[in-house]
Amino acid sequence: MKHRRLIFVFNLCVLMLITQTVVAAPKATKEELNIVTQRLERLERALDDEAAKSANKEGLITLQQKLNRMERELQELRGQNESLRNELDNMQRHQRESFMAIDKRLQINAEQANSSQQMSATKPEMPKPETATNGTQVEMVKAKPVERKPIVVSSDTQDSDDTIDAYRNAFLLLKQRRHDESITAFENFLATYPNSKYSANAQYWLAEANYVTKRYDRALTEFQTVIDRYPTSSKLPDARLKIGYTQYELGQYEESRVTLTRLRAQFPNSTVAGLAQERLERLDKEGH
Questions:
Q1: Which of 59, 75, 136, 174 lies at a 20 to 30 A Cα distance from 157?
Q2: What is the domain partition of the chain in residue ranges?
Q3: What are the tens digits of pLDDT across the range 245-288?
Q4: How far apart (Å, rounded) are the C-alpha atoms in residues 282 and 246?
C-alpha cells in the first residue's frame, strides 16, 4: 500500500513536470516526449520490482516468525513429555511403596476377619484315634518336623526388582483369594529367594494361605517355620498367635491355651495379646 502511494505521487510529479515542459516549450518534439515517457515507464518498473522484493522479504519474515513459534511450541511439548515421564516414574515408585504398606496393614484386618468367622463356625470334631484289628486304640504318631536352620536377614539387604515382583505377585494372589496359586507362588519365592528381606513375610503368608483353606496340619508346620527360621522377624508375634488358633482348630485345646497364655504375657498391651485373650475366653466359655 505504501509503495502504490509512492508510485502515485511520483507519477503526479512527472505529469506536472511534463505539463510544465509542454507549456514552457510548445515546440517540443514527439521524440522528446517519447523519451520522457520511456524513462517514466522504466522508473515505474523499477518501483514495481522494489515493491515485489519488499513483499517477498515481508513473506520471509512472516515465515521465520512462524518457524520460531513452532520451535517454541516443540520445546514446550518436549518439556511436558519429560514432566509426564517423571510423574510416571514417581507413580510407579509410589505404587511399590504402597503395596509394601498394604502388606503390613492387611495382617491385622485378616486376623480380625478370621476371628469373626471362627466365632460363627461350628465346633470342630476331635480327631479320632486309629483302632487296631483287636479293637484297642492306637496312639497317633506325629511326624517329626524337618529341622531348619534359622535365617537372619540384614535390614540392609537390597532385593532386585525380580525379587520384589515375585513377592508382590504371590501376595496379590492371596489377596484375590486364589489360595492354591498363592501357596505355589510363595513356595517358589522361598525356594528361589531364601535370603530376601521379604522371605519371613512370604513364609508367614504361606502359612496363612494354608490356614484359610483349613489345611491346619500344614499351617501349623508353616507357622512354626516362621519362628524357627526367622527369629528376628516382626511376624513372630503373629505367627505365635496363629499357632494358638491352629491348635484350637485341630482340637489341641490345652496346647492352644498354653501358647496363647504365653503370648499374652510376652506381648502385653498389644493387638496380638488382645486377640489371644479373646480366644482364651472362648476356650473358657466352651469348657476346654
A1: 174
A2: 1-20+37-75, 159-286
A3: 999 999 999 999 999 999 999 999 899 999 999 999 999 999 99
A4: 14
